[in-house]
Amino acid sequence: MAFRSGTYRRGRTVYTGDHDPDCSRLFWRIIVGLGFAGLTAKWLWEEYNVRNIRQAMDEIQGHTLPLDLTSPTLSSPSHVQSLEHKLVSFSAQPNQLFGTVHDPAFELSVPGMKLQRNTEYCQWHEISNEVCETCSRRKNDGKTETYSCNCQRRYHYIKRWSSYRINSLFFNQPGAHYNPQRDPYPTETFLSRNAKLLMTESTGENKVDSKTATPIGIRLHRDLLKQVKSHSHRFKPLSPYDKELHGFAQSIAYYGHEDTNRGGLFGSSNPAGTRVDRFVYAGDGYFFSPYEEGLSTTLLKKFAQWMEGSILDYQLGDLWPSCTAGDIRISYDIYAPKTLSGIAEVYLSPSEQVGVTTKEMVLSLHRTSKELDVGILREGIFSEDMLIHAEIGDAESQRLIWRLLLLFAILLYGVYQVFCSPRSCSAVPGAIPGDIFGEGKEKSVD
Description:
The protein is an alpha+beta fold. It has one domain (7-236, 284-444).
C-alpha cells in the first residue's frame, strides 16, 4: 500500500479576471523565444561535441598498442616501464574482470564497476489550468478585437513518486498539500575503487602474486570508469536462505524485510540508513523509509489549513491508500559488464606491497593535443576501430535527436502561425490550446 501513488485531489477555483491580449501575446512570445534559444543552444553544443570527438578519435586511431592480458611479459618490470604514457586498446573476458563498488551510507557492497543510487520522494504535484470566456470589444479606430474575459484558474493536486523534491510553499493550498523536504540520502553515483583487468595464464587461470597471494591486474582509474557504457540491472537483495542459490557475494548486506514466510525480520547488518531513517527492504529492489510527522509540523499544517479554508476539505481521493508525502524509497542500478573493451593511457602509480614499493599499472584518460580528455570503456568485445566508430556514432545520434527536436519545434510553430486564426488563437491566451478541462465561451462587449 505504501508504494502506491496517484492520489488525486481537486483544489480551488480562483477568479483571475480579464486578460489584455497584448500582454498575453508578449508573454507567449517570450516563452517561445526562450524555448527556441534553449533548443538552438543545445543543438550547437552537440555539433561542437561531435566535432571534438571526431578530432580526438582521428588523433588516436592507429596509434594504440594492443594490451594482451595473457601475455607472459605483461607483468615484467621492464615491459611495464615501457608502456608508461602509452595509449593502449584492450578487451577483457569475464575471468579477466574484477571490481566491487560500495555505498557507505547503507554499507552496501556489490560486484561491479559503477553503482547508481536512485532516490525517489512521495510528493504532491500542483497542476492548474485556466478557463476563459472570449469577449469582443470595439477599439478607438472602429475595429473589433477579441480578448479573454471572466477567466478562472482551477487547481488540481496529484500525489505520486518523483525523482526530485517539490517546494509546496508556493502552492495555492500549501497547508492541505504539504511536501516535506527531507533528503537524507540523495541520488548519487558510486565508482569502484578496486576495479581491475586481471592478467591470466594461457590456460585461463588468473596470475597470482607469489608474495601477497592476490591476483595480478591493471587498475582502472575512477576517471576512466565514469566513461563506462554498459547495461545495468536493478539490485534486489535476497534473504540469507537464497544468496548461495543465486550466487550473491557474501559481502552483500541484507536489510530488514517483513517476510511472514521467513518468520519476521532477518538481516546480518545494521547500516546507518536503517538506524537513522528506518529504511527497510520493501521488495522489488526498493528500500523504503516512511515519513514520521512531528507534533510541531502537524500543528503548523492545521493552522495553514485553517487559514486557507481547507481544514474540513475531505475528498474521495483521501480514502485511496497511497504513499504519504515525505516518504522516501531508494533503488540501485548496478553496472557490472561481463566483458569489457576500451582505449586508455597507461600510467604508473607507486604501490606498496609487503613493505616493497613497486610501480602499479593504471589505465586512465588520455589528453589529446587539443586538451581533450579521451577514454573509452564499453561493454562487449570490440576492436580499436569498432570502439572509435561506436563512440562517434553515439555522439552523432545525440546530435541527430536535437536536430530533429529543433526541426519539429520550427514546424510546429509554422503550423500554428498558418492555421491558427487570430480569433481562435486569442480564445484562451495564457492557457494551453485545446484545454482538456473546459472550453471557452464567447460574448461581445460593446
